[in-house]
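Q: Two folds, back to back.
A: First:
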Amino acid sequence: MMLFSILSPLENAVLWLLKQFHHLGLPWAWSIVATTVVVRVILVPLTVRQIHSMQSMQKHAPEMKEIQRKYKGDRQKMNEELMKFYKENNINPAASCLPLVAQFPVFISLYLVLKHFTRHVPKGSDLSWLHIVPSIAARADSHWSGFLLLVVYAGSQILSTYFMSATMDKAQRGIMMVVPLIFITVIARFPAGLVLYWVTTNLWTVGQGLITRRLMPKTPMPAWPRRAQAPAKKPDPEPVKAPQPAKAVVAPQQRRVKRRKKGGSRR
């Protein structure tokens, strides 16, 4: 209850913003979408810090892996060395969580607004969305369209996690993508408008990830250390053959022809 009383000013601000968009001609459901966009625009500076932190973590990943390998037997020493490394290289690991943490009070405030939404809007107001979801103030699992919205939520959450977990290893990334499917039974008890808020912020994150990949300079992938290869073995030199002695040249013997004497016999 104390938390709810602390969030009362933020709850009133969210309700005021919803009413302003509704007075501009937007239905209540689309007012939630517009409010989500305003919240994400306000959080752009934190998002920029988040992106820079992710790029820095990716750039220095080999050094951090080496520290973890070197002190894997002493967890306290490993954490001390990592904190020292973060300080020397101006890395803030918590920056990647800032947009999510900042949205949590807004999420709770919107939940409180939707919980008693019928008290704040005139009777007979259209609370549907796209003529599919009958009421954004009703629980998501109270109508078949709410389950469809939950499927969209799960898909958008997996995509947003894919773009915002580039520095994680494969195991952690897989866990982060499975978590939305585990909590979907809890989220189904929330008002449909709250699920719509989270779908919108996830889609914003996906679009933000696509734009970031196109516009911002890409951080080169870290060169992971490889095992040193043995130098190629040079071929053995061919043995030097000893010079062969020159063969003596034997002059051909001339054939002696016996001549016959005149009037005599051949000797």
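A: Second:
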Amino acid sequence: MLTFLKLGGSLITDKRQESTFRPSVMNRLSTEIASALKENPDFKLIIGHGSGSFGHMVANKYNTINGVSSSTEWRGFAKVATIASELNYLVANSLKEADLPIWRIQPSASALAHDGKIIDMSIRSIEQAIIQNLIPLVYGDVSLDEVRGGTIISTETILSYLIQKLPIKRIILLGEVDGVFDQSGNVIPHITPSNFESYKSALKGSDGVDVTGGMLTKVSDMLHLVKRYDGLSIVICNGKTTGETQQVLSGEQSIGTLITTDNN
């Protein structure tokens, strides 16, 4: 089974302070991922991560997600790309130190979007990584855009493209909350298309600066995916809780919020 693991930007960085990495959190996550893979050597994994306080603050300053046209905006576009890659290096180095076979893959090197949605991106390196038991590492980045000139492509946007091309059957979204909360502050154990409306008003935007949307956007996007791709399951859970990442990667069913179709 091919799993896409997303490390949220709010988890691995402090989104309230510009370019602030959380090395202790990332090192623990790396260790837990490595432990889960040792338990199941045949496990196939793609890892993606958000840009957190590295990319989002610069992108917000230049309004990059809404388009790039002036020379100042194009310079901002380049700054976002550079800063996002700086965080990617820190994440990759941590994963490497846990002896994981990480291969950094830069989305902006080949991605082309149309009004914010990726319409083309090379996946040959990702496919080869999976075949050779390597772990491709992608991240929130910038992209040329046929309508906007340039834009931001979040990790979820990249995932939405990859799932069209690769047999991804499970998605794990690690953040800094225990799952999706209802109006009473309790974790919703299971969200499906039929019960989503009853929970929708409880979903609020994320803390700090987030140019790609908060929890409502994420849940809506994930529901769209499970309706489109048969057998897909998605878990939103807490990467801050020690041991939880390893448990959910190993198949623990009672962690976080599960998102599936009504039939799963």
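Q: And?
A: The chain has nine helices and twelve strands.
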